[in-house]
């Protein structure tokens, strides 16, 4: 059911949008109503980059926006921060409409609650690592004592202690993006927006920095909105993934739900390149238990890849145990080996 503008969700929601549209064109003021925006879809003169987006982003989650080039990911991210003004709809931060804030109110929120990490790092070339990291604090008007306390802490957090006096050009791409992350975190923002932050990096460094985001997140519990066109990255990082196409949301869900049930061929084409054994849990593939006692059991949240050895080497089916300790089903070696084989095929193909 379509949600009404202004309808507030529960307190676990940090950021949300309702009926969000963005139209690019010569006369955007002509499209102030949702019905006019719908008509503009077919006009050919205007371009509708976002079409009626409704999302809820929970406190402390990594919310990944994924889709092919031109699907509207960056436009969505920018509308959520109002770096780009939405044509219609509302953005709500902690339930309060961001979309009705004046310039001063918006600046305060941006300075104190939000931070961004960009694909091109966007470091100031003439400032040292330490000065780049301290920049948001300086802009905010923090005193020297606070800057001197926070900057070394953030530098160490991203593993760059000892490099604080270097200039950006004296760092590798991966190190530059570590500075970008530290700078974003220095102001202790509630919301972190990351727009394809690792796309310019080679695959090994990219993976290393994904691990860094997971580590930072488990420690700092920020709400992160992470844009990527890489589905494997989305699955690795996301608590929730929204998949976009032509400015619309095609599917939203936990990585495991999307991988297990892609809604259409578009999503299916991304899922086809993923090793499912790393995403799907035992609970998902279990069949009804035929016994109440098993010699070997596994946690229903464990990923297939984590229990593969155990299941393959057991004599007979293995019990799957839910969070209250009850046997909720069973899995057998044939199912697990079949999934592992298909995962290997996908790895070979990619
Ligand atoms: N200022 C603008 N004026 C007109 N059209 C625009 C403008 N900015 C973006 N668009 C169009 O809106 C659509 C969505 O762009 P957007 O940058 O949000 O996509 P994206 O999914 O982030 O793509 P990419 O992964 O290539 O960055 C694209 O077709 C783009 O050409």
Automatic annotation (TrEMBL):
InterPro entries per UniProt: AAA+_ATPase, ABC_osmolyte_uptake_ATP-bind, ABC_transporter-like_ATP-bd, ABC_transporter-like_CS, P-loop_NTPase
GO terms for biological process, alphabetical: quaternary ammonium group transport
Domain of life: Bacteria
Pfam annotation, one family: ABC_tran
UniProtKB keywords: ATP-binding, Nucleotide-binding, Transport
Domain ABC transporter: 35-271
Gene3D superfamilies noted in UniProt: P-loop containing nucleotide triphosphate hydrolases (3.40.50.300)
GO MF annotations in UniProt: ATP binding; ATP hydrolysis activity
Family, as annotated: Belongs to the ABC transporter superfamily.
Protein name: Glycine betaine/proline transport system ATP-binding protein
């Amino acid at each position: 059911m379509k949600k009404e503008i202004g309808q507030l969700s529960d307190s676990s929601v940090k950021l949300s949008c309702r009926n969000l549209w963005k139209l690019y064109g010569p006369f955007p003021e002509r499209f102030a109503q949702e019905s006019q925006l719908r008509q503009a879809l077919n006009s050919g003169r205007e371009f509708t980059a976002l079409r009626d987006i409704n999302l809820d982003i929970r406190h402390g989650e990594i919310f990944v926006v994924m889709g092919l080039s031109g699907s509207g990911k960056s436009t969505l991210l920018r509308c959520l921060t109002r770096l780009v003004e939405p044509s219609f709809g509302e953005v709500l931060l902690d339930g309060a409409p961001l979309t009705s804030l004046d310039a001063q109110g918006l600046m305060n929120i941006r300075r104190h609650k939000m931070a961004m990490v960009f694909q091109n790092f966007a470091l100031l070339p003439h400032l040292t690592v330490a000065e780049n990291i301290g920049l948001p604090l300086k802009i905010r008007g923090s005193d020297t004592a606070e800057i001197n306390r926070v900057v070394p802490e953030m530098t160490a957090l991203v593993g760059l202690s000892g490099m604080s006096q270097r200039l950006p050009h004296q760092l590798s791409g991966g190190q530059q993006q570590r500075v970008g992350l530290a700078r974003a975190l220095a102001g202790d923002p509630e919301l972190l927006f990351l727009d394809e932050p690792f796309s310019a990096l080679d695959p090994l460094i990219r993976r290393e920095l994904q691990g860094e985001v997971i580590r930072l997140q488990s420690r700092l519990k920020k709400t992160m909105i992470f844009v990527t066109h890489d589905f494997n990255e989305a699955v690795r990082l996301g608590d929730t993934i929204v998949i976009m196409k032509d400015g619309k949301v095609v599917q939203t869900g936990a990585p495991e739900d999307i991988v297990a049930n892609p809604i259409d061929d578009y999503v299916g084409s991304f899922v086809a390149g993923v090793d499912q054994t790393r995403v799907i849990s035992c609970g998902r593939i279990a069949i009804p238990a035929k016994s109440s006692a098993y010699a070997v059991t596994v946690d229903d949240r464990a990923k297939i890849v984590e229990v593969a050895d155990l299941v393959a080497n057991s004599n007979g089916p293995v019990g799957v145990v839910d969070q209250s300790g009850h046997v909720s089903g069973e899995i057998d070696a044939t199912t697990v080996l079949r999934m592992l084989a298909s995962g290997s095929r996908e790895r070979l193909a990619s």
